[in-house]
């Protein structure tokens, strides 16, 4: 499957996904066809280039949401992605972006999306002294962290006494869960396609 990864920041999830396509659970299942950012100076974009990934950017600053999203979608379509994978992409997507990729956009959120949406999810878990939190991978719709959940994994926060430690434990789970969820999604789609091909070969 062809993955377009979108980021606005440091890109640790992007790096974990690239690694998984090279030597991990996404090997022989997926390739990163572009890493895109709305921030041309995002550190993650430079890391992606170092990994040999094609990179592209389009500054969103000062642009109207719909116009920017339409242009970004058009740019990404040139790479023919099967999945658009948001990895710290700090924008709420408008229909102009969602429609061309409907049902094929994924996001990772560092909380249970039923309990917490938007920014600062690790701060929220830390300040509320939660004994555990969840990482969520979900399909993206027009809301903020509202789309159908594909996978969740618990992060144990017992004995944690700094925000940095919450983030360290959370990110370790994020990096595994995102690649794993994509691998399962791609495999299940391949199964659907091969059983459809089987069915069409059955003599009438
Ligand atoms: C991650 O915590 C992710 O869950 C959230 O934004 C952060 C991005 O971090 N959506 P990174 O850029 O992948 O390191």
TrEMBL record:
Protein's pathway: Purine metabolism; IMP biosynthesis via de novo pathway; N(2)-formyl-N(1)-(5-phospho-D-ribosyl)glycinamide from N(1)-(5-phospho-D-ribosyl)glycinamide (10-formyl THF route): step 1/1
Catalytic activity: N(1)-(5-phospho-beta-D-ribosyl)glycinamide + (6R)-10-formyltetrahydrofolate = N(2)-formyl-N(1)-(5-phospho-beta-D-ribosyl)glycinamide + (6S)-5,6,7,8-tetrahydrofolate + H(+)
Positions marked as site (Raises pKa of active site His): 145
A Pfam family this chain is assigned to: Formyl_trans_N
Annotated TM spans: none
Active site feature: 109
Binding residues for N(1)-(5-phospho-beta-D-ribosyl)glycinamide: 11-13
Record keyword Transferase present: yes
GO MF entries: phosphoribosylglycinamide formyltransferase activity
Residues that coordinate or bind (6R)-10-formyltetrahydrofolate: 65, 90-93, 107
Enzyme nomenclature, EC number: 2.1.2.2
Domain Formyl transferase N-terminal: residue ranges: 2-181
Keyword line: Purine biosynthesis, Transferase
Purpose of the protein: Catalyzes the transfer of a formyl group from 10-formyltetrahydrofolate to 5-phospho-ribosyl-glycinamide (GAR), producing 5-phospho-ribosyl-N-formylglycinamide (FGAR) and tetrahydrofolate.
Family membership: Belongs to the GART family.
The protein's name in its UniProt record: Phosphoribosylglycinamide formyltransferase
Gene: purN
């Amino acid at each position: 499957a062809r993955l377009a990864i979108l980021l606005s920041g440091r890109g640790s999830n992007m790096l974990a996904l690239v690694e998984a396509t090279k030597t991990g659970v996404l090997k022989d299942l997926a390739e990163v066809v572009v890493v895109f950012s709305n921030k041309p100076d995002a550190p993650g974009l430079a890391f992606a280039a170092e990994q040999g990934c094609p990179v592209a950017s389009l500054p969103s600053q000062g642009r109207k949401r719909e116009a920017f999203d339409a242009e970004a979608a058009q740019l990404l379509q040139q790479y023919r992605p099967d999945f658009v994978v948001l990895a710290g992409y700090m924008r709420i997507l408008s229909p102009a972006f969602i429609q061309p990729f409907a049902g094929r956009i994924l996001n990772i959120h560092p909380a249970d999306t039923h309990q917490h949406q938007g920014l600062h999810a690790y701060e929220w878990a830390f300040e509320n002294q939660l004994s555990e939190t969840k990482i969520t991978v979900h399909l993206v719709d027009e809301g903020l962290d509202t789309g159908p959940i594909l996978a969740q994994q618990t992060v144990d926060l017992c004995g944690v006494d700094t925000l940095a430690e919450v983030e360290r434990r959370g990110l370790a789970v994020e990096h595994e869960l995102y690649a794993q969820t994509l691998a399962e999604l791609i495999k299940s789609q391949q199964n659907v396609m091969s059983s459809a091909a089987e069915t069409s070969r059955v003599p009438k």
